[in-house]
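We close this part of the discussion by returning to an individual protein. In the encoding step, the backbone of a single protein was reduced to a row of integers, each denoting a local shape. The sequence in question and its structure tokens are set out directly beneath this paragraph.
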Amino acid sequence: MARYGQYCPITRSLELLGDRWTLLIVRDLLVGAERFNELARGLPGLSRGLLSKRLDHLVRAGLVAHVDGRYLPTQAGEELRGVVFGLAEWGSRWAFGEPRADELDATVLLWWIRGGMDATAFGDRERTVVHVRFRSGARRQYWLVVSRGDVSLCFTDPGFDVDLRLEGDLDALYQVWEGRMEYGAAVRDRRLVVTGPTDLVRALPRSFRFSPVAPFVRQAMASLAR
């Protein structure tokens, strides 16, 4: 833990939270990740060893409780919600723009989408399989198996009939998920192409809960348009 040698609540806060990856771990805990593997999947640039070290630090600092294999924000951790999403609001206005190539990881995006899908949008169907295919990138194909109570992300064909096919540009789907581009606009411009039965095609955008930062990004985009 870095020490700044200044008696100030801001420096004390930075001593707890200023190390690389720490606030992103807190972000993921606040939006529902609880297990070590969940956190690791959502932060692939972070080694498992360093993730373990950062979590131990947060537990010792009283920001996170480790209970039965789950990492849960304490009251102190929950009260960081305003700080984390305050950064989201500020960043949406002053630091967010076109995505850079090094920020586009298809697996991370599909992992986020998997965690934010509402199966009820597809009605009473037992299972809906979405085949996602990107036009470029190291890994181009994924399958989302959406059932009530669970959404699975598969890297190989799970063997079920495909109900929907989503093909498009990775940067476009990222911007839709983050609220920087409207889903309808991406479809009209054929940045995203969805094929399948009409009722399922219409249900797909309703199944997306979108990123928790999307409201801030949309608000920032609307203010720029005025």
